[in-house]
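Bench notes, afternoon.
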Amino acid sequence: MLQCKKRFWQKDVGQGGFSKTNMMIGQLHYPDFNGSGIGDDERGLLLVYTWQANALKYGSQPKDMAICSAVHDISKINPEIKHEFEVGTVQAWYSDPTSEGAFANLKPYEYIDHMNSLTKPTDTVYLAGEALSWSNGWIQGAIFSGLMQAYCFQSHQEDKEIVTPYL
């Protein structure tokens, strides 16, 4: 994620969207939406989104070096970033101790063969997460999965007879 003094890219790509490249940066995301009214002269964020080998290359670099590499690659498309870049950060999922990877990449038959059993709750276990949704790898999948399991839990609790032990 790269914070820039100005949204210099809006003059070329408009507000929001993304660009695909064949460079190590993979995709550039412009998190905004048309009609937001945020001007080109206001601060903005560029998001670099990479996969597989390129993600490993960025993630294995020290954060400062990965940010410099991203700025260098982006400058080939948008030279303005050299003067507009302020600060950045890196999220390398494969080396994150809480995830140790980006997302599950299931094959179509794995969804068909396993999704029903994985998402069916038991009396004590409710599994949720982006990998257990129709939109794996994305936050909306995690939200959908969590809401589905919360609904199952609540429904299960309402079906149980409430017994209050005597103290």
